[in-house]
Design brief:
Blueprint: H1 11-22, H2 27-37, H3 41-50, E1 62-67, H4 70-74, H5 77-88, E2 101-106, E3 118-120, E4 123-125, H6 130-141
Parallel strand pairs: 1-2
Antiparallel strand pairs: 1-3, 3-4
Helix pairs in contact: 1-2, 2-3, 5-6
The structure holds FE2/S2 (inorganic) cluster.
Length: about 150
């Protein structure tokens, strides 16, 4: 029986590193992840679908994940999501016209006590109101936003 050179549990870390380097997991990155872990490309594709933070399409410079689960929904997440989508000028999941932003609705991120919550790249923020979002979007567009 063949064994994987890297435990299957390592796939999430491998995907994170590849995504950070490439922006998203394209076919080449998927095949590389399979090669590095000893998993089949089909299995890696399956895991990419399972892990909600894995991006399979090109994204903008910043990815804005806005929680739309119940606690955030009750706290006004739909307004935040609508404002961010309107600002980007494109559909959810697409790269904004400026190339700086991709807005993605997301399931609960475990930040319910900070609802409505969102993530900018890997940085959790919340609670975020429409005024704070306006400021955040302006900073992202001007490339002056920095994680705290
Ligand atoms: S419901 Fe939004 S972070 Fe949990």
């Amino acid at each position: 029986m063949a064994t994987s050179p890297v435990p299957e549990a390592a796939i999430s870390e491998v995907l994170q590193v590849l995504q950070k380097a490439r922006g998203y997991i394209d076919g080449e990155a998927l095949r590389l992840a399979a090669s590095l872990t000893g998993l089949s490309p089909v299995k890696v594709e399956e895991l990419c679908t399972f892990y909600s933070l894995v991006l399979r399409e090109p994204v903008g410079t910043h990815v804005l994940r806005i929680c739309d689960s119940i606690a955030c929904h009750m706290a006004g997440a739909q307004d935040i999501l609508a404002q961010a989508r309107q600002h980007s000028g494109v559909d959810l999941g697409e790269v904004s016209r400026s190339g700086k932003l991709t807005v993605i609705p997301h399931v609960c991120m475990g930040l319910c006590d900070r609802a409505p919550a969102l993530m900018v790249d890997d940085q959790a923020l919340g609670p975020v109101d429409t005024q704070a979002l306006t400021q955040l979007l302006a900073q992202l567009e001007a490339d002056i936003w920095k994680p705290s």
